[in-house]
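Hi support team,

I submitted a single chain yesterday and got back a structure, but I'm not sure I'm reading the token output correctly. Could someone confirm the output below corresponds to the sequence I sent? I've pasted both exactly as they appear in my results page.

Thanks,
R.
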Amino acid sequence: MNIFSRSLFLLVVAVGMLSPDLAVAQKTVVDAHLANGGLFRLKNRGSGRYITENKTDHGLTGVTQQTVKPGALSQIWILKKNDGSYSLRNAYTGRYIPAENGKPMKTTLGASKLYIKYSAANNGTTTSYVTISWDAKYEGEKCLNENNGTRYILGWKANSPSVNDKFSDWVLEPAKDVTDDEIKAQITQQNHFTKPTENAYVHIVSAAYGNVITESPGNNSLFCIAPDAGDFSQVWKLEKISDSQWALKNALTGRYIQKQNGKRSSGYKTTTAKQSYTFSEGTDPYVIQYSIEDAGGVGLHDASSQDHLLVGWDISAEASQWGLKTVTVDEAALKAKQDELAVYSVLTPINIIKIRTTLRHYFEDEACTRLKPEFQNMSDDQLRAKMSEEPTDPADPVKIAIPLFIQDMAVKVKNESWGHREKEFRIHNYDVFTAGGYSDGGYRDIIGTNFCFGVQTGPTGISVKRGDVLTIYVGATPKYGASIGVMLTSDFAVNGEVTPLQKGFNVYTAARDGFIFINYHLKNKLKKVADYPAIPIHIEGGRVNGYFDITRGHTNADWLDMEKTLFKDKVIHMQSKYTHYLFHLDRVKKRMGQSYLNKYPTMYADMRANRVDADGVPKGIQGVLQRWDSIVAIQYDLMNVKLYQDRFKGMLSASSNASGNPHASSFGTYYPDAGGIVDYYDITIGRDTDEGGNLWMLAHEIGHIHQRYINMAGCTEISNNFYSQVTAWKQGSHVGRGGPLSVAMNHFHKGNNWHEYDLWIRTRFYFQLWLYFHEMGHKPTFYQELFERLRREPMTASTQEHAPGSGKTDFLRFAKHCCDVAKMDLSEFFQFYGMFQPTKNYTVGDYTNTYFSTTQKDIDEAIAYMQKYPKGPEGLLFIDERIRKVPATYPGAPAGAMRWATTRDVHPAQASKVGDVGMYLDYRNDIEVAPYTCTVSATGKVTIQKDGKGAVGFKVYDTNRKLVYVSNTWTFNLPESIRKAGYYICVAYGNGKQQSIYNATNVASIGETVVEPADQFAVIYDLSGRRTHNPKHGVYIVNGKLQVR
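Hi R., thanks for writing in. Yes, this is the structure output for that exact sequence:
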């Protein structure tokens, strides 16, 4: 080795290029960091900058390294490991990196679950980059990334060799230039947490979420919400019992948090008696915080799983740690709030009963909408004086003097002195709905949904602030065990706690800011919806914000009026026949003011001009809700829900506050924005090659709810697309979506099994059945009857790898049901889609894996079952709506307009892509047909002469009558293996028949008996000379020649 080579070798070894131990050291170091946590700077691989929290607005950006303290602490992060996830807290503010995107992302008071792994873009194990995500699977745009242009920290894709984005990779640089005491002093300066002090007023702040303990003055329950300056129900006075024992007294109500003696998961309330709790300082080295113990290691806990109720739980849990933040109290303001609260102090349980009874003396109805004539004819002063009288005789129908705020209601009713549209929303007849939610009484099973129905069935138009007292007057007791209650939902929540209501006078105190619903629900599946009359309900208190409801008869004009006069909440509630909507008002209004594609009028312009579309649907927001209803109606029609609609009336929620992609879940569907989904032209017409656009997406997500009974294993993102296919087709601007039939043919020719066919081809499988049976009218109730059979005998699949199931209870059961409904042998269609390929210990990936071992015996039994029916349409597998161009049918489509492509590279009439034959319009029993001829070259090129009529596809069989090759083009090439074995070429006609047009079996005795000519070409006589149209097995004279059948 020369001197230069030896020196180079030593240099290489020194930097670790040839050292196996050093090669794995970087990953070892990363693993140690993640196992132990600690203090780190987060350095971006792409920019070399560090994640830094802005001390003013808490935004996160990439900044070059800072060294001067305390500002340098804004770049240092406290990494803490928690049961499979992590949190990252800023050393300057004590705030956390959130689990949500933003531009830029901003830190939050509460900790979020983050996931950190060794980056897939590392160079083996020699580099130390990590991926930081708030998605456990590191999927989607949910990984920390620095935008190199803006330097914002935001959500993006995880780096990998395929993504190749270094700005999604981070280095954990240990921060050794700061001490725990420095961080604690700085965070304490920021969060103002302190030690408990005698008679101090404090906010009790959740260390996990940044919420503060809050009392609901109406029912004295306790929960944890964001701090609100001036809200005295969040302020607590510390009363010292001993050095570690303290009582917690609410500043507004004067009540104490009541002990539960160590009971877990149960919600705390307040009481008038002083109760003591043990304060123990926490173990967090950076924050002054305490556990507040009730008994037996159980104490106050901010329960995120229970909508942040204050419950009992282990004091060691992070959400059982609390900070004490001193609050300055304006005693005069506190007294004023206490006086306001005292107005309602009369509403004790016994007095509520007395008021309920007494109001019956004054009003004709329980809903208090009509005074009796003798009181209606009084002056206001006379009525108030009468209602203020105390009872003097126990037999008197008056049991109590009516409080002033209820007298105000009576005077308003008497004089009809309602504000603008106030009566419309304060008094309404509420219809019954079938129960939604997790305890829906079994309606999910009847209808066949994956998720529970919504519970936001009776919107009121009344918004409340936390602590508002509502008086609710209910006109009747529900019949047959139905329930009626008041529900409050906050912001974009689709569910809330329901408080039962009684006939007559009720009192309800809002525990949070939100929107009020009346839930009138039935669970008795033996009763019909019509058995339950509407119940009038009158609501006083809160603020009339209104909402838009086309089932109440609201029109575009009503929207324009309410937008101007009522709508103040950031969430706009809307309702149609099947859906309750919770959308961002500002985003809806923004969309209504935009021109779709800069081509169509704005929705506002249409609404102000009262424009109506060609199909009678008003353009604008009213039409948007009607179009949404049509999506659900199409799905209900296919599902045959009409059989149950006398006993079923469900509602789905739709929220525009989802993070990430649109999705379906319990109660309804969720969307990241209210953009195109509320654009009239987007969901009515769309545009060319938009892959179905927002209309497709809406039907897809709603379809997730309704796919249960047609969902074969592995088809969660497939069977719901069937609804999108039908919806988009009925919309009238597009053809169906998915690859050309040639893709399915390739799968078939390779011998793939059903689960190996790609997603879009399996999507078209469902749609092909619909095109033939429904669109072409061969059995317009096909899917309705199929759903009924699947309700009675649903598909099942095994999720146990050690005990795989069989396709006979899944896809083969679906196929058999199809044959039962059609009363046809459709086995060749299912053969084409790979359902007759045996598998052993086969894993089908989906949201949940399923496992199959499908034997040849299972398959043979299924085929035999199907073949008990007459042969189905011979060309079913070829049916396609894209072979020729089709006129568009969307409302107002101009003459000559044609349906657009939905899939970008598959255009109607593009023969090189979609094929030459198989147009769905040709699948008619009366189509004109004539025989074809063909030639086959020595190399296997098949050329079908265009000398016949009515072809929809071409099929090749082997000598055992097994389908081995298919084509929908005039020319195709037969593989050598098929040519050597012998084969037949048949033409399938649109009338359901087929005819052999080429025989290369090399078995002369079989002749033309493998595949019978179509009856319309064959003149058939039996040996007695009688013409027959349905020959049985035997010898016949066919077109003048003897033939065995």
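A quick pointer for reading it: Residues 1-24, 1003-1017 have pLDDT under 50 and may be disordered. Let us know if anything else looks off.

Best,
Support desk
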